[in-house]
Amino acid sequence: MPLLPWSEKFELGIPSVDHEHRELVDLINDLHDRLGRTPAKEEVMGFLEEINARIHAHFALEEKVMRGMRYTELDAHKHDHEELLDGIHDIMDRTEAGDFVDLEAELGPQLKAWFGNHFATKDARLHHFMEEQGIDEESFVREHPDA
Ligand SMILES: [Fe+2]
Ligand SMILES: [Fe+2]
Description:
This protein is mainly alpha-helical. The chain has five helices and no strands.
């Protein structure tokens, strides 16, 4: 059972965005699979740091696009991103302090609830808006390097 099984709830109906989100989810699961059954604290920290970095990079790209096009929902969207990162940071702090964190019981459901909600609402609105405006994420970032 993957840490974060892909769910229809994650789909927002734009193939390129769904694909990008799926890659993120697959990556989290692959990294998690590579942890042994009873990983050492350093391995768990390494895993958490890596998923934090990948999720952070995904969010940073979206925020860059939102800033660049002066998207009115930027603050609320960014706040939502920060909530998930805070949740991951909290788990990292506890792991670092030597507290046992059951990743399957705690991180998995947290990611699932968060992704399920965020993709279907804020990301759906953002990406449908971009689609309406004919804005493609990759070319937008290329054309607005300083956003
Ligand atoms: Fe996203
Ligand atoms: Fe987002």
